[in-house]
Amino acid sequence: MILTIGSVNIDHAHRVAALPGAGETVFDKGYVKSLGGKGANQSLAARLAGAEVRHAGAVGADGAWCRERLAGAGIDVADLVTVEAATGHAVILIDDAGENSIIVHGGANRALTPALIDRAIGRARPGDWLLLQNETNLVAEAARAGRAAGLRVAYAAAPFDPVATAGVIPHVDLLAVNAVEAAQLARHLGAPSESLGVPVLLVTEGASGAHCWTGRQKLHQDAFRVVPVDTTGAGDCYLGYFLAGLDDGMPLDEALRLAADAAAIQVTRPGAAEALPAKAEVLAFLAGRDAGQGTVGA
Fold it and tell me: What ranges make up the beta strands (E) of 138-275?
């Protein structure tokens, strides 16, 4: 089982020809309001990959539909509470090349309490995964409590904060960062990320694929060639599928390939949560790759 203590956002996504520079105002080419947040995205990805998922966190009264969407996907939301603050939200700009720029308002995601964390962890079993990100408060406290309860702790260190990340790492079994975050972490700590002693380190590198280090091995997984439409949420898709694979007992290399397949499909579609592929689609994509079929999105 995967317990996510994480963010739930309302995404406001705007399509633009090019990302605006400083002081520049541009008209958008389209607008979509949808469910987002790194925590919610990762929970949905893991659930679509077949994992049993529980999501703990907070939304405001304006986020009731977000709670319903997660529950409708088969995610246990008993510990996703409603608070006085507004639901967290993100303003996302996506350009014609599929690159994005994002501003996040924490809102209810920053209103978690120790009692909520203790209740959610108390419902988990030793050996379950606890999945955390930097979009909520009390991340280090949750990691520490999860480890003490015998859970395996996975941590997506984004949005990246070197001080916060350094405080969580001692309690982590799986650290997930992208290449930029890995470099920032190495500079902050004065040592390569792979030397931190984390049991599993996952570094995603966009079109270059991903690397995974353990105490015994280093694995590389190529990214599959696709025509990208929107890269929003691709890292969340990757981690959710990867963690679901590990939770199901997959070897690391198989879990990496499953995650790469899922992320390849994700970036060919607009949006974040609504672009996540179902496992059947991922397996069909993998079968097509093995059969030598062409690129997706071409």
Answer: 152-156, 174-178, 200-204, 210-214, 218-221
Tell me how far apart the alpha carbons of residues 64 and 67 are, in angstroms, rounded to a whole number.
5
- Write down the catalytic residue from 76, 128, 236, 247: 236
Q: Is the pTM of this model over 0.85?
A: yes
22 exposure class (CB count in 10 Å sphere: 0-12, 13-18, 19+): exposed
**Domain ranges within the chain, ordered by starting residue:** 2-18+30-287
Measured CA to CA, the distance from residue 13 to residue 232 in angstroms comes to 10
Tens of pLDDT, residue by residue, the chain (298 residues): 999 999 999 999 899 999 999 999 999 999 999 999 999 999 999 999 999 999 999 999 999 999 999 999 999 999 999 999 999 998 989 898 878 888 889 999 999 999 999 999 999 999 999 999 999 999 999 999 999 999 999 999 999 999 999 999 999 999 999 999 999 999 998 888 888 889 999 999 988 999 999 987 899 999 888 888 877 789 999 999 999 999 999 999 999 999 999 999 999 888 788 889 999 999 898 787 665 544 444 3
Domain 2-18+30-287 has CATH 3.40.1190.20: yes
79 is known as an active-site residue: no
Cα separation, 163 vs 249, in Å, equals 33
